[in-house]
Amino acid sequence: MATNVNVFTAITIQATNIASGTTPYNLALSGITLPVSVWSSSDFFMVQTGNTPIPLPAAIVYYAFVINLGTNPVTLTVTFNPASSAPMVLNPVTMGFGTFFWYAATAETSPSGITAMSAITTSSVTPVQYFVAA
């Protein structure tokens, strides 16, 4: 955990028609910056078969990234501010990586952000990687 950190995000989304070799859709976003005062992460957080809270460094986080690194599905439940929960399944690793969840606010404004995250797996302990910041 550190203070006075900028979280920079860049993403490229590209759809390529393999048969024709054309790119009908291309979106590149860069320079997305969120100044944060606290953050936490784990490169190999073990999700249990019972509800496993993902620790947040503040009451509300404005940046969150979670990716399934294992071979079992993981159900991630995210509680948004104000108080609406959304469960989603992060599928297991295929083609190099598993399903991921990504939430990136561009400012710490209310009402927005995430107030809680927890995960559960179906059959055996499954690793995820996460990064959260506020």
Produce a short descriptive summary.
The protein has strands at residues 5-17, 22-36, 39-47, 52-53, 63-68, 74-80, 84-90, 100-104, 114-121, 126-133. By secondary structure, the chain is mainly beta. The mean pLDDT is 91.
Q: How do the SSEs run, as a string of H and E?
A: EEEEEEEEEE
In total, the number of strands is 10
Number of helices: 0
Portion of residues in beta strands equals over 45%
Query: Could you say which overall geometry the principal axes of the C-alpha atoms support?
Result: globular
Give the distance, in angstroms, between the N- and C-terminal Cα atoms: 11 Å
CATH topology assignment:
Jelly Rolls
Oligomer: single chain
Please describe the biggest sheet, giving its number of strands, its sense, and whether it closes into a barrel.
Answer: 4 strands, antiparallel
Order of strands in the sheet with most strands: 3-10-5-8
* Overall domain count: 1
Mean pLDDT: 91
Uncertain spans, ≥5 residues at pLDDT below 50? none
Global Rg? 16 Å
Name of the CATH homologous superfamily: C-terminal carbohydrate-binding module
**What is the top-level CATH class?**
Mainly Beta
Shape-level CATH architecture:
Sandwich
